[in-house]
Fold:
Amino acid sequence: MNHPVDPYPAMTAWPESDRLALERAARLLEHPGVAIRIANRLGTPIEWAIGRLPAGVLTASRQAIETALAVAISTIARNDEGASRDIWHKVAAGAVGAAGGAFGMAGLAFELPVTTTVILRSVADIARSEGESLARVETRLACVNVLALGGRTKADDGADSAFLAARVALADALGGAAQAFAGQQASGIVAPAVGRLVKLIAQRFGIQVSHKVAAQALPVIGAAGGAILNVLFIDHFQDMARGYFTVRRLERRWGPAAVDTAYRDVVLNWRVGERAPAG
Structure:
């Protein structure tokens, strides 16, 4: 009697719950970026809008993000109890977006750093709900790392997995920053390691931000539009966080090598024609 071939041999010993968790994580992490969500919901011609942004807007927004990230490393929330409060953070992001949208492009200098901080708080909350200890520096840096997920760079275009490509690209910088903090070295030594990580993350985060800023630059957006944009924006990174910290939870149980192989198997099966699982 012929038995069906398991499409995921690396997960043969895994319970069904872990298999489904990894499939769902992969679906979230390989999901199209925030630009698609904005375009689908608002009908915004993203590429057209980006080409008409005022000079210097994207540069200024990335500088604000780098500042927010540097501060967030030391201020991210500590452990508490209960499930992650995704809806509460969406409400907070929407309120900030409404305030920024009311002022148009002039509100970006205020709105982007605050939105980034709200996103990081939500990411930390999700990390905690997946069993991470926010008291650990490595976990807190991993929270910041989520902001680099969900958008391909030109260097990633040939990769089978956007998530794995981003993770590899940031691995050295993430490890260096974690070691610097763990060793409690002098600030003059720690700062360059953290600065390198922040720069790499800001570059990738900037891809997502550019689409949000382009949509927000349209004169018809206003306060309501700004709120919607921010909800779409944080929803995207909540998905990235849920997928990323699910992968990390499975790695703690089955080992990074086994999870990496299983994740690649899932993505490969999608690439050869199988549909991603609904969820």
Summary: Residues 185-189 have pLDDT under 50 and may be disordered. The two ends are 33 Å apart (CA to CA).
